[in-house]
Design brief:
The structure holds 2 protein chains of 2 kinds.
Chain A: E1 5-9, H1 13-25, E2 29-33, H2 36-45, E3 50-54, H3 62-72, E4 77-81, H4 86-94, E5 99-102, H5 107-127, E6 134-137, E7 140-143, E8 148-150, E9 156-157, H6 161-172, E10 177-178, H7 180-186, H8 196-209, E11 219-222, E12 226-229, E13 234-235
Parallel strand pairs in A: 1-2, 1-3, 3-4, 4-5
Antiparallel strand pairs in A: 6-7, 6-13, 7-8, 8-9, 10-12, 11-12
Helix pairs in contact in A: 6-8
Chain B: H1 10-38, H2 44-63, H3 69-76, E1 82-86, H4 100-109, E2 119-123, E3 130-136, E4 142-147, H5 153-195, H6 210-255, H7 261-289, E5 295-298, H8 299-312, E6 317-320, E7 326-329, H9 331-349, E8 352-359, E9 362-368, H10 379-382, H11 403-413, E10 417-422, E11 428-435
Helix pairs in contact in B: 1-5, 2-4, 5-6, 6-7, 9-11
The chains are: A alpha/beta, B alpha+beta.
Chain lengths: 236, 441
Amino acid sequence: MSSQVIVLVEDDPGLRVLTTRALQGDGFEVHPAGSAPEMWRALDRAAVDLVLLDVMLPGTSGIDLCRQIRQKSDVPIIFVSARDSEMDRVIGLELGADDYLPKPFGTRELVARVRAVLRRGGMDRRHEAAGDGKAHFDGWSVDFPRREVLSPSGATVDLTGAEFDLLSSFLAHPQRVISRERLLELARTRIGDSSDRSVDVLVSRLRRKLSHDGAPPPIVTVRGAGYMFNAKVTHY
Amino acid sequence: MSAGGRWSLGLLGRILAILLLAVVVEFGVSTLLYERASRLSVHEDEAHRLAENLALAVKFFNDTPMADRHALADRLSTDRYIFTWHEEAPRPPLANPALSRMRLQVTAWEPSLVGTQLRLRVKSPGRSNVVIGNLRLRDGTGLEIHAPHLIQSTTFTINRIALALAPAIALVVIGALLTRVTLRPIRELVKATGEIGHGGTVQLAEKGPAEVRRLTRAFNEMQARITTLIEGRTRALAGVGHDLRTPIARLRLRTDMIDDPQVRKAFAGDLVEIEGMLNSLLAYFGRDVDPEARSRVDLAVMLSSMVDELADEGKPAEYQGPDHCEAVCRKSEIKRAVSNLIENAIHYGGRAIVGLRIEGPDAAITVDDEGPGIPEDAIAMACEPFVRLDAARARNTNGLGLGLSIVTHAAASAGGRFSLANRPEGGLRATLVLPLQPLET
């Protein structure tokens, strides 16, 4: 399998070089760009799997750039910003960015986010035609890019990173038995301690956090096989 | 409102005007009342008796020869009416307008007295109040009558005191009301001054006396200057903070390239510390630059996820509380506040026990630790910005001493409260009380 191509748009030369090296170290092919025109050239030159975009570029704002990319392509975009303001995050995600990475980030976090978005991109292509990354079940709604879960009463339900990844895996394979091993594999980036027990702990936490009005969430244990998400899931 | 040029009396002018008004009213009312009081009239029947007595006496004196008139006067005199006869015509006494009404009453009842040049006056009014009447008999001699009991002196005095007191009391009340109205803008100014610095600006309308209007304008301008100054510095600081994130990101990526694991770990630790300081600084200053909107949040799940995240990293944190508890709040702000409390609890108290209780309309979030607590007299100081209680351990502390003041601010902006207390069983308890359904502001 040929390595996946990432276009990195970052105006700070030092950070551009370092990020490029970090991603290359993980087996990605990286095309660095220091400005908007360079980015367009890089996008034209090759098939691109992901764009890593700094919001605060001189000249053009990253937000405008994101909008322009979206008009032409569905390539996954990760926003990088030094401002961890809620506004930036929301605007970026509304405009179609797939994730938001606040500065400063470490190599592990960078690679994990890139992998997660690439995997989700693949998943999206498998399960839905053109979705903007939302799912519904039993009155609950899940926003994947914003990593946000809303209860039937409209309250934000904060999950830990690992719990959200586990829920995403369930939502990608509803009404099918998934083994513990498979769940671990799907959520590998988040679960440090990769034992079967950690999956059980995560599932029990998810059940507690996703209960509503006394009704348990539709995660059933299938003896000797694993777990099943027993609800109708609509992606859109 | 630019009422700067509008003409105004000024505070001094107003107070003088109030005094002037008081004096004028007092003078006017007193004059009016004294006029009333001295225009004494007696009861109709008293006047009639006086008239009848006078008419009869005049008739007797006219019919009696001069020689017998002194004796007649003695015979006619009673306790109530004492007659004296004067051989020469009475010198015209000073007409007392005060008794003109009584004279009218008398002459109306006995028209025969009209031609007698009857003059009535009051002697030493206020004490014994003797009404003295003088008239001319037909032959030009004079008759004088003293009527000591005609006017009750006691009622007269009480009336006078009451009459004098009434306007005085009314004046005090009016004066107090007017002064109150005049000073109202100053009271508003005092109130506004107390509100400055608790978020938001208080723009006062320029009204009232000239001095107060000038004061109000100066106050508004001062407030605007302070706001601009603080905003400018906050923005500059926030800008620097954001700019610092790019070099920190470079350092973090470079750190990952260090081969020696010990050096790498040390570098990473330093970077975490720098980042912690930067984040708390930005949280402290950024809250005013970029306020967050309120939304419905499941506090119970939020707290247990925060604890789970830490527990997954092997940190000593646990959650005790209900599975669900929905509240409307600024999520990031509350999350940051609680996270500061948890960090403190783990750092100073060995472990963090996060609790949640619903208390009527509020949610009470508690963070307990098992540390030594803090001295009672230092509890209030602990919430001040840039205060760290353990100066000696400052080097090990992650942050700038802004943690608790961020919590205090979060509590205030949510309409809740924050308190610290030493637990009787040891350790410190931090309590953050938030309304489940805050009032819209």
